[in-house]
Amino acid sequence: EGSFILKFQFITRPWTVLGRAASLYTDPFIMISGTLTAYTLLGKLQKNGKINILEEYVSRLMRIVPTFAALIAFCTLILPWLSSGPMWNQVVTHHSEICKQYWWRNLLFIHNYFGFKDMCLTHTHHVGIDTQLFFVSPLLVLLLWKWPKKGSCVLLLLALVSTIMRYYVTYTMKLSNYIHFGTSIKQLFDTADNMYILPAHRATVYIMGIFLGFLLRNFRNVALTRGQLRAGNTLALLSFSASFFGPAVMGSIDYVYNPTDAAWYAAFAPILWCFSFGWIIFTAHIGHMGPLERLFSWPLFSLWTKISYTVYLTQFPIFFFNVGVTRTPENYGFFRMVFSLKEFVWIGLMSGVLTILFETPFQNIRNIIFKKKEIKLENVQKKIM
């Protein structure tokens, strides 16, 4: 009984916001995806005056499909036969059966529209979201490039609509992006299926990323005064705190679910959260290297970016494998469970294998194909001149 009380007290502590607000962690990735896409496309527009949209789509698919398909094939056809355990059928075999039936949805990048229950490799819903947003991004970037004022108004309107959609669906369906005491599994699944995995509801931060990419491309030499920098840092810190620590009251054991609280959190927390990250990126880009900027510029992170996609793909199959093979009860230990060295090592190894066997070769093929096209174009231009 004493052990149970200690564990119960453990999960009521304020710092458990780290887990309760976990839905926020993926928003910066969506924003940064929009930033990189806009920055790249605007660079091509400034250089050539146009972009080959079909080429961008093909390049994107060559970048992500082979590795994605390899993982689906492994988890569907090979992983179920590698081991066994009390939970094996539930967490490994069950998912492989879903993939046998619905793998094609993943390769068409529409799997996030069918809910978690019938989704092959549920953790890859972000691949679907990001790909769908990418496919509309050239039109948004072209609009912003050709008509900056009108384009900005259109993008702001789309971001506003996405924000309103998050608020409305959360309030009317009594969803919750924040894990409070009493959150049911059904509520979590409903939140995912009706908001979290749908691109229209996640588009706000992607559009923020497009605006950030526009700023990075066009305002590289802007100079901020010390007062402006201090004001921006303060605003970013307040945004970070409001989005992350502000809703901590919803993590109290005495908290009673309120759809208005949940709707405000779902609508505005991602915006505030991503603004703080966007400010760090922008100030670093124009040369203001504070402690955070220097940390994020650490050379080791460049190495991490080489395997980040495969780390994202492999982590959950490894989690499920470890759950499936566990045969005896274990004492609960938060840090031991979260910071499992064995899992980190296996994720690193499997990510490296997937990168070497699939991602890097197809990246090289893609680079060869499109580099040849660039060389041919340059030769034609030289002959004309």
UniProtKB/TrEMBL annotation:
Cited InterPro entries: Acyl_transf_3_dom, O2_lipid_transport_reg
Coiled coil ranges: none
GO molecular function: acyltransferase activity, transferring groups other than amino-acyl groups
Domain Acyltransferase: 21-322
Stretches that traverse the bilayer: 22-42, 63-82, 127-145, 152-169, 203-219, 231-250, 262-282, 303-324, 344-362
UniProt entry keywords in alphabetical sequence: Membrane, Transmembrane, Transmembrane helix
Protein name, entry field: Nose resistant to fluoxetine protein 6
Species assigned in the record: Asbolus verrucosus
